[in-house]
Known about the structure:
Blueprint: E1 6-14, E2 19-26, E3 31-37, H1 41-56, E4 61-64, H2 68-74, E5 84-87, H3 89-112, H4 118-123, H5 126-131, H6 139-151, H7 153-170, H8 175-191, H9 195-206, H10 208-217
Parallel strand pairs: 1-4, 4-5
Antiparallel strand pairs: 1-2, 2-3
Helix pairs in contact: 1-2, 3-7, 3-9, 7-8, 8-9, 8-10
Amino acid sequence: LDGLFRIGVDEISWRKHHKYLTLVVDHDRGVVVWGAQGKDSATLDEFFTELGPQRSQQIEAVSLDLGPAFIKSVTTEGHAPNAIICADPFHIIKIVGDALDEVRRDLWQQLRRLPGDQWAKGFKGARWALLKNPEDLTDTQTTQLARIRRNRGGIWRAYEMKEQFRAIFTGDLTRDQAAALLDRWCARAQRSRLAPFVKAARTIRYRRDLILNAIEHGISN
Length: 221
């Protein structure tokens, strides 16, 4: 545990999510340096106890998801007094992806209630066409996404917002540039009249500083 300056904290599960393991990674070396069973703040407290006050003071940044347990542990007095907390980009982007998937499910249920089944059949299997990154689409998924684009509507607006949000993390942006794009995205999402995106925008606004910290320091779990 010597020489830790930028760390990431995350959890993994096994046995159908009945058991969890908290892992700590060293971003600079790209290796897992600590792990323990559990996923609550007490579990991560064990890491800081083992690390000790002197080494804890050397930590400059911690990336984690937005769950309160890990944030509580990191911000406990003496644990990482000099660390900047960064919201892990993967978990942030997942919030928007989940919002898109919720819009998709709602549309799917609407199409299933229409007379005949041609609309529902045409939309079947759209999940991965919408959620995958464009460069990873198969030919069939690319065709389906083009069909969704032609039909426009709320599902296409949701997809556009997902891609616009993802682009904030893929560009080489300064903190101020990212902040402007993030605020613009939240404003659009809140005007979208798509309830899942309105909810996602509230979460993103609430954790805005942590998201910008991650972009500024360029760390991701």
